[in-house]
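Hi R.,

Here are the chain sequences for the assembly we discussed:
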Amino acid sequence: MTDRVGLVGELRAVVDPQFVIADAETRRPFECDGLAIYRQMPMLVVLPGSADEVAQVMRICHRHNVPAVARGAGTGLSAGAMPHGEGVLLGLSRLAAIRAIDPLARTARVEPGVTNLSISQAAAPFGLYYGPDPSSQIACTIGGNVAENAGGVHCLKYGLTVHNVLAAKLVTVEGEILELGGPAQDAAGYDLMALITGSEGLLGVLVEVTVKLLPTPERAQVVVAGFATLRQAGDAVERLIGEGIIPAGLEMMDGLAIRAAEDFAHAGYPTEAEALLLCEVDGSAAEVAAQIARVDRVMRSFDPLRITVSQSEAERAALWKGRKSAFPAVGRISPDYYCMDGTIPKRELSNVLEGIARLSRHYGLRVANVFHAGDGNLHPLILFDASKPGETERTEEFGARILELCVKAGGCITGEHGVGLEKIRQMPAQFSDAEIAQFLAIKAAFDPTGALNPGKGVPLLAQCREYRAVSGARF
Amino acid sequence: MADLEAQLAEQVTAAAAAKRPLRIAGGATKTAILGRAIEGEVLAVGGHSGIVSYQPTELVLTARAGTPLTEIEAALAERGQALSFEPPHFGAGATLGGTLACNLSGPARPWGGSIRDMVLGVRLINGQGERLRFGGQVMKNVAGFDVSRLQAGALGTLGVITEVSLKVLPKPQATMTLVEESSDADAIQTMNRLAGRPWPITGAAWFDHRVHLRLAGEPEAVQAARREMGAMAEGDESFWTELREQRLDFFRGAVPLWRLSVGSTAAPLEKGQATLIDWGGALRWLRGGEAAHRQDQAAKAGGHASLFRGGDRTGEVAHPLPPALVAVHRRLKAALDPAGVLNPGRLYGWL
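And here is the predicted structure of the full complex:
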């Protein structure tokens, strides 16, 4: 057993004592992240105030053999930041300084607790911004973004987090600070930036990140088109890409999502439509003018019920508001919802949506679909009521079936939310035992005792066999 | 066009059992450059070749590692697409697997990304001869560690790449090259300033007292940017191919060629000495000089130096790592290749 009192004493010697939280009431808000159906009270919450304090806390945890779970803003959707019952929850929210912005080099060096949006706000006076824009960007932190390799609605053109970070400082499980990457386009030796991006807090704790900044486009315009069928919208997406257009954003919503969003945001969406496409292009004014005409022509060739091209920044924002508030909008039409995150090849969209509809009938649960159509990332939102006995379990099972459907269609179980605790049972659906064993060996290369975010991201081989036996029995 | 993965895996398994080092070869166009000279039984991946799938509207191409780049580029061109990272070939036989292992990207790299950026997934034989698959054939996949991108620049020391899935992009409809007389210091300022503007730039290099810029995109956008950039002369587009393939005069001769990958705004590294600047300032090519001096220059400019071609290739050619990272590299190598049989010593003598 861990000597909790001794541990608290040691931690309070290195971190301001009020930020070493032992009482249950103050620990309570940390018991879950954005996926609140998974909860666990941490033994302790520690909120260090500097990179050096993080390193010292890790050294103490290492000496006591206490697990540590890093947390940014807790907006994650895979329970990746759910605490460990016998561990320290390491909150990085106090490390929230923007250290430097270099406008000529187009980089920003920031602490991990800085929010995604605030980087773009700080860069705006220089005509620059930070590319990836997950829907939680007001609240989510860059440390969490790197840990999860966060995406957003502009990935197809501007990439994921992994394409937009240059350097990081990582505290190891032993409390040593590693400096990875740098201002250059590549680094000597192995590409450790690629390895730690999306590693879900399993390999180390981020204490500083240097991101790339992009020039703010001169102009952006969005075309919104409603269609009678999902197939028309899917075909329009194929045609757009086939014609060589790479939109800045290309989003699709199904009927239930359209109507929920319209009720909530009054964006002017056609509520009689069964599919809605939002296609945004950005760049120089000349580039946008040329592309928007092509997008408009392609959309019209698929007989839209209604088509709108934004003519002002205000109108563009209004048209996006419906899509950006799709999750809370769905939250209003159901007591609870569960957001999935599978990816599929775009050509499989109709098949996968039909499969989801079939499962929806089987489980007696409604689904609203929101789709990053440009990059094949599907977010089915399962509507349920946690207060009804057994419904949460049925929802989880339904979600698992959706992910297996995605893998069978040639896709994968998570596009941007991460595996965390939530999808650990589906890892064996995507990876063989030898591949999981390879992940575990990489994990051990950084964290031999398994003290960093235990039980998340990569399952143990014994668990894989168990999951395979269970899912084999079901089919 | 053949699937040799099973045979390749058998050869690795046998080598691992005997602790016999393997030297991985694709098209053998980079044997004498980039890494250290090493001995070992040849593991010939070149015959493991062929495009496995190509879906233009998915923007994804999957090909076996031994597939020649020329074959891939021809297939893409037929559908109006291209490799946005514009890989150098350095010879007719250049393969996809070798390009990933070397993380080679051309002048478009700061704008079009590197091959590391465009990799979606790989099939891989680890040092124990196990055939593994990481990543996928979709744009986004965050399940498990990113073992695919980890291969970029690892020079085959972390696995035998047998298949690669890549994101591909439409070929720009129009391109234009602009040229202007400039000092190196001014060129670095200009290239960085322009890269911060929302214009369709896909190349920025300085060589022989002249800055070269490339615009690519919608024809109207290229013309509009050209007007905004003022009175620059139009140049020859073949410059970018000559630069990418290192056929410019600068690259001729046997004097060792140093590659310094640095922060794009770093001031000129050397006065008097001929330098070629690519990647909008982030890549500096220099000829000759002592290793310690080049490494010091690169480190001060926020980057690293490597002996790209020529010189003593039995000593270290890559930039030295701090002890903490040496330890991480050794442990990662052991995690993927416990017997140490995959290209040992190619990246670093101790790895």
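The domain at 5-170+330-336 of chain B is CATH 3.30.465.10 (Uridine Diphospho-n-acetylenolpyruvylglucosamine Reductase; domain 3). The radius of gyration of chain B is 20 Å.

Let me know if anything looks off.

Best,
T.
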